[in-house]
Amino acid sequence: MMVVKIEPYKAMLDAIENRLAELGQEKNMHSILKKSINAVARTGKEKLHAETKDYYTIKSRAFRKSDIVMRATSSRHPGATLTVKGLRVGVRAGYANRKNDKRKGASAQVLKTSAMKELKITYGGRVYKAFLATMRSEHTGIFQREPAKYMKKHQPLTGKKKGREAIREITSLANAQAAGMAYTRSGLHGELQEEFVYQMLKHMNTVTGGAK
Fold this sequence. Notes:
This protein has five helices and 13 strands. By secondary structure, the protein is of the alpha+beta class.
């Protein structure tokens, strides 16, 4: 789970509060703060979604704006939060990918700045290539045989052979991981603090009539 707390620096709050006191408008501080926090949270949600889509090849159906849950400020909770949850996403369902062919295994691209990479591992001198498949459950994904792990229901009752090797689906970043790294890489925290300055001054000027 990834959580972004939306709250302004104390120095900014003190400056706004002192100015309101000079103008006899202290009673409006809570309203100004609430409106500013909620406005910044809405902006943060939009930007976090956009930045994540800019950095990663994550598909629209795998990461929607609604996957970023905004909890707005209230009298009981004077700060807003943005929360992203979710398990790791299957490569086929979530990111740019290419199915296997006769020569190469299935490929995937997670970062937009990276190239499409063949998904394969080498174990015991054998190359295990990823492949596109549809399971009996009708779930389609990119899978790979697991070296030294075997499917119990396909193990013979007698003999030396251990049966068919187990299969696992190849997954990539969970939405929370992708959003968290995009948040850090983009410097979004600093951008939101700048937005706070704008919103606090905007709402203060609304209640004070732009008094200087």
